[in-house]
Amino acid sequence: MFKFALFLVVAFCAVQGFETRTVQIDDRSLEDVINAIKDIIQKVKDIIANIASQIPEIIQNIRDKINEIIENIDLPGIIAKIKEEIEKIIALGEAGKKCVEAEREQIEGLIQNAQAGGEACISTAVNEIAAADKHLAALMAKANEVREDISGRVVQCIEDSKLNPIALFNCLKDQVEPISAELENLQALIQTTIANVTEIAQQMTANLASCLEKVRDDTVAKTDEIISSIKECVAGSA
Fold first, then answer.
1. pLDDT band at residue 173, thresholds of 50, 70 and 90?
2. Mind giving me the DSSP string for the chain?
3. For the whole model, what pTM was predicted?
4. What is the pLDDT of residue 221?
């Protein structure tokens, strides 16, 4: 027979809000089992807190990178320079005005295409941010699912064996391996998800830069063409 000399408190309440129960048993391995489970629960709790704090930071870093690319390529600045160049030609006099007016449709189309192209590039990037956010939200949901499953397993042991310390010990002992496996799987999922999100972010920023650069280069080339045509028109009118 066991001598019920050692008082152990199954104090999961501090971690998961479980009801505190006192179990008396002479075998300290019960305490080891309880501590192992409490340690796993605390690790899952820490993981969830860590993920919750990282998600906004990850998304903000992606947004910051997008803004940096947009600012560096500066399509609005290029469009402003086009308008400024046109105004300089108009200021040359009647010939300048007529020649600009002759190219008015081309100029407006150029500006509209630049604006639409830039917006399309950015819209695609925003959609890819949403995809990254979805991956992170799924990770958070899975972490909470693991926490709830582990909590449910422990609560079930306590409810089923609350009057039998030996049965409680056996039940909890049997849960250590499966919940340890759940923790390992969760940690592996975190690594995979973060790697996927990082890859998405890298590809997205590369695609955005490439897309905006193409819009910029096409706009500059077309601008040079139109301005050259207008200047030739002005020179021919002199």
1. confident
2. ------EEEE-THHHH-PPPEEEE-S-THHHHHHHHHHHHHHHHHHHHHHHHHHHHHHHHHHHHHHHHHHHHH-HHHHHHHHHHHHHHHHTT-HHHHHHHHHTHHHHHHHHHHHHHHHHHHHHHHHHHHHHHHHHHHHHHHHHHHHHHHHHHHHHHHHHHHTT-HHHHHHHHHHHHHHHHHHHHHHHHHHHHHHHHHHHHHHHHHHHHHHHHHHHHHHHHHHHHHHHHHHHHHHHHH-
3. 0.76
4. 94
* Cα distance between residue 150 and residue 180, in whole Å: 10
pLDDT of 11 higher than 60? no
Q: Which of 231, 44, 60 is nearest to 136 (CA)?
A: 60
Tokens of 8: 């152990």
Residue with tokens 């408190």: 9
Q: What would the pLDDT profile of 69-86 be if each residue is shown by its tens digit?
A: 999 999 999 999 999 999
pLDDT for 29 equals 67
In the structure encoding, which two tokens stand for residue 141, read together? 């949901």
